[in-house]
User: What shape does this take?
Amino acid sequence: DTADYDHITFEKAETTLKTNDESNNELYAENVDVKLTVTDNYSGISKIEWSVVAPYDTANNQEGTVTIKNNEDVAVNGVIGGWKVLTKDNNLVTKVEQTITVKNDSNNIVVWVKLTDRAGNTTVDEIKFNIDKQAPIMSVEMNDNDDEKYNGFFKEDRTYKVTILERNFIKDVKFVVTVTDDNDVKSDVNVAPDFK
Assistant: This one.
């Protein structure tokens, strides 16, 4: 945000999820609606440029530009280039808003807005967040040490390799291993994961 006379605000749903990387960006599991509000109460809004850029899902990147003429014949609650006019001062449009849906399945998504007022002054602001729509993929492999004579019995400890493919992996995974003996008695086995 900037001073009261010209500014850009972003509103989106809250999330309690964070990425487990140096960015510590907010993390969402689905598309995110971002309401952009642009205000200039002195000389009025001349041009708004905006973009949604994600490095890992460029097919869903978006951008737009709207130029507002000082003699624009639009009433409050009217629409100019997809932006709803919220306030005017005589012939100047002073506050507009638009909601965009961010659809990128990517980390480090940047929603960027640039405001140019009628005097040529510019204000730029941006927010960053992540959207991860993919469920984790897990596979389990185990070593083959069956006893040749007694099928289903093992001559050594068994080692399981669990592979988890997840872009926003957090190492607080819990492994619960339950074994069932010949009498259908189940018991849990303690495991010590070795993360690599």
Remarks:
- The mean pLDDT is 85.
